Amino acid sequence: MLLRLPSAQEYALAVEKEHRWLPVLAQHLPRPIPVPLVKGGTGCGLSVLLVGL
After folding, report:
1. Sign of the alpha-carbon torsion through 13, 16, 20, 25
2. Half-sphere exposure of 1 toward its Cβ, with a 13 Å CA cutoff?
3. 25 Cβ partners below 8 Å, 6+ apart?
4. Which of 4, 9, 30, 46 is deepest in the core (most CB within 10 A)?
5. pTM, whole model, 2 decimals?
6. Distance between CA atoms of residues 7 and 11, nearest Å
7. Rounded to an integer, what is the distance from CA 29 to the centroid of its chain?
8. Alpha carbon of 16 to those of 23, 30, 31: distances in Å?
9. Whole-angstrom Cα distance, residue 33 to residue 42?
10. pLDDT of residue 6
11. Do 41 and 48 meet the contact criterion of CB atoms below 8 Å apart?
């Protein structure tokens, strides 16, 4: 599993988009790409969302 942690607050906006669209796009791409497994929230000292791929 890979964790994707945005490096800046403005990149956190992409987390929602990636979580929604990566599974849809993966079906149409010629090569396998990781799809989100889980989506974390803020807390435990984190101020941004993170995605487990």
Report:
1. positive
2. 9
3. 33
4. 4
5. 0.58
6. 7
7. 18
8. 12, 24, 23
9. 26
10. 73
11. no
Q: Which of 20, 13, 17, 18 is nearest to 2 (CA)?
A: 18
**Paired tokens of 29:** 């791409």
Q: Give residue-wise pLDDT tens across range 1-53.
A: 677 777 777 777 788 888 888 889 888 999 988 777 777 766 666 555 555 65
The predicted structure's pLDDT at residue 47:
53
What are the DSSP calls for the chain, one per residue?
A: --EE--SSGGGGHHHHHHHHHHHHHHTTSSS------EEE-SBTTB-S-EEE-
Give me Rg for the CA atoms of the chain.
12
Tokens representing 50 are 């993170």
